[in-house]
Amino acid sequence: xxxxxxxxxxxxxxxxxxxxxxxxxxxxxxxxxxxxxxxxxxxxxxxxxxxxxxxxxxxxxxxxxxxxxxxxxxxxxxxxxxxxxxxxxxxxxxxxxxxxxxxxxxxxxxxxxxxxxxxxxxxxxxxxxxxxxxxxxxxxxxxxxxxxxxxxxxxxxxxxxxxxxxxxxxxxxxxxxxxxxxxxxxxxxxxxxxxxxxxxxxxxxxxxxxxxxxxx
Length: 216
Fold this sequence. Notes:
- The protein is of the alpha+beta class and 216 residues long.
- The chain has one helix at 2-36, and strands at residues 42-52, 57-68, 71-76, 79-83, 87-92, 97-102, 124-133, 139-147, 154-162, 168-175, 180-190, 210-213.
- Strands 7-8-9-10-11-1-2-3-4-5-6-12 form a 12-stranded mixed sheet, covered by helices on one side.
- The N and C termini lie far apart (67 Å).
């Protein structure tokens, strides 16, 4: 009888602790999201690493991301992706090609340049992991997230959030195929005056590129 009571007590304690941890994670995420939504624009410089331990592959690139509402311009590796909130232009430098598509192709994606700071708000369970000091002395929160939709091509997302600034420091996505992708924010400048023309692509500026229109 004592063993049964002890087991119930332990399970109840774990359940309660889990609930408290989730509440803590939600509070931190809500604070980060609320602050991010006050930014009119963001200009981010980041490092991007793709790692597959089984295949012994590690690829690192740097990139830039401009965001204004639902518009963005992403530059990484040998491609530029521009979105005016309705149309996406993907400029592939190596292939001398420009692919044109509707933003509807992203409707099933949780992680996009415009949702990277608020992805937890829909379709995730989350868990507070720990607080730690980074090498540069910055105190951060680490939060672990799991997509509710098990059909996603990734199974876990780790967010590292600056405790004081309430800003995203890094995001790591663990893929089911063994590919792990990490984005580390190197520099973030907010509320710059960015013209809307920045988020459109004039294909005539690329006379030697083949334009492939994939819109239906």
